[in-house]
Amino acid sequence: MELLIARNPDEASTLPYLLKVPLGDGLVFRARDTWPRTTAVYLHPVWADEWPDTPEIVERVPVRSCVRRGAAIDLVLDRGRENRSQIVYTTARGREVVFWQSPRTRKQARPQVNTPTARAAGLADLPVVVDSHERYAYTFAGKPVTVTRRALHCGDYGLEHQGRLVASVERKSLADLVASLMSGKLKFALADLAALPRAALVVEDRYSQVYALTRVRPAVVADGLAEVQVAWPNVPIVFCETRKLAEEWTYRFLAAAHVWAVGEAPAVRAGNGPTPATTAAPVGSQPSTRQIRAWARLNGIDVPDRGRLRPEVIQAWHDAHPSPTTPETD
């Protein structure tokens, strides 16, 4: 028996490899990688006839054992290192998925921590607004959270005080983060978040996984993340190991923001313009239309969802954000 790994001849596929497992007549999967070294590898099952007649073999490894046990396939290769793995059939976000994992990646996927049960900031109830466009939103199960779903102009999980959005958290998987960074959309998202008094971006993965990327140069991603963090320092990018920990962090961040908003209400002056503590923009940069629109809504100025902004709205933004090189007059 042999485990065969070949290059996927379909250039349009996002999964560059084909995996043939010697079980029965042979199971064929499209695969993201050739072995689960740093993280579990996503597999997409396909019909056996998708295996090409003349495959471009990448690896051919003898198999010592290949046995199906319930919803998993235990695979033991005949080599000294990286020889034990498991192909697991499971469900995620309501659909069936298949992952290829090793003992190392399985341990990493289950950090030995238990999230605390204590209420964040001692709050008996935390009202959280979840963006209606968030398909698989956090439920905050077991937390004293009241969830309301409606559209947010920025972020995925928001906190309102006196009818205004004062804090928001944008959630991303590592794949989403990289895609938005490379397309330039991340800069717009951070500009919108920076217009709020408190905001953050939480990533459902480790920062170390940035350097395990294969389809994008890790250095390009790392430099891009450093660049946007310097440009918008008031919007921290927080890496959490798992979705569960990212949800826990989001809950406690919004709870802390709630205490801040209630206890320091003068810092958010309704309709009178922001104070230095409530907004921040990159020094010396020109604001985007989206950034001005978000700032205007935060400060009670009526602006359209699309199209050009009125000159007085743009002037109001500049009046509230004077250039540090421009002397103020009495």
Fold and architecture overview:
This protein is an alpha+beta fold. It folds into two domains: 2-106, no CATH class; 111-324, Rossmann fold, CATH 3.40.50. 25% of the residues lie in helices and 28% in strands. The protein has seven helices and 14 strands. It has helices at 103-109, 174-183, 185-194, 218-231, 243-263, 289-298, 311-320; strands at 2-7, 17-21, 27-31, 41-46, 57-69, 72-77, 84-92, 95-101, 126-131, 145-150, 157-161, 164-172, 198-204, 237-240. The chain has an eight-stranded antiparallel barrel with strand order 1-2-3-4-8-7-6-5. Helix 3 runs parallel beside helix 6. The longest helix has 21 residues, at 243-263. The chain is elongated, with a radius of gyration of 24 Å. The chain starts with a strand and ends in a 10-residue tail after the last helix. The model is unreliable at 266-285 and 324-330 (pLDDT under 50). Keywords: DNA-binding. It comes from Polymorphospora lycopeni. InterPro entries: E3-bd_dom_sf, ERCC4_domain, Lsr2_DNA-bd, Restrct_endonuc-II-like. Residues 127-207 form the ERCC4 domain. It holds the Pfam family Lsr2_DNA-bd.
